[in-house]
Amino acid sequence: MTFCGLTIDSLRAEGGVIDLLIGLNMLSNNNSHRHTPTETEGPHQKSTVGIVPLAIPIVAGPGAMVTVLVAGQQNPHLLSKAEISLVILVMSFLIGVLFSFANFLSKRLGDTGMSVVTRVMGMILTAISMGLLADGLKGLLPGLAV
């Protein structure tokens, strides 16, 4: 990170902005991020639908990457890095188990229920991203921290 001139605070602010944009798209139920015909099909046109609204931004998105980078930077010891790796492995397993129920839940909730869940998760993601952005800006612009 030092080689590229990146700081933890700039990564926090960047992750906050990207997650904020994703959360706002989820809140407005905006489909502009979809580009292929398969992505633009409505859920009623697909044979299998397994939608987990927070999956991409939280599991493998910029917020998750920033979190791992910040944790690795703040905990330079080998034991700390092993603990972080263990947490990632455990969470990957748990998320895989939860993903296996996504299709079932999507069918039970229906289109309207999934729309509501997407908007609620968008609101939660937006709140998380605002905290991440605020922390990054406080570090980048210390005059903002009171």
**Alpha carbon gyration radius:** 18 Å
Number of extended strands:
0
| Poorly predicted sequence stretches spanning 5 or more consecutive residues | 47-54
Number of domains: 1
- Secondary structure category: mainly alpha
Described by the principal axes of the CA atoms, the overall outline is flat
If you average the pLDDT, what whole number results?
78
Number of helices: 6
Features:
6 helices
Overview of the molecule:
The chain is mainly α and 146 residues long. It has one domain (8-141). It has six helices and no strands. The radius of gyration is 18 Å and the shape is flat.
What is the gist of this entry?
72% of the residues lie in helices and 0% in strands. The protein is mainly alpha-helical and 146 residues long. It has one domain.
Please give the structural blueprint.
Elements: H1 8-27, H2 37-40, H3 55-60, H4 62-74, H5 78-100, H6 102-140
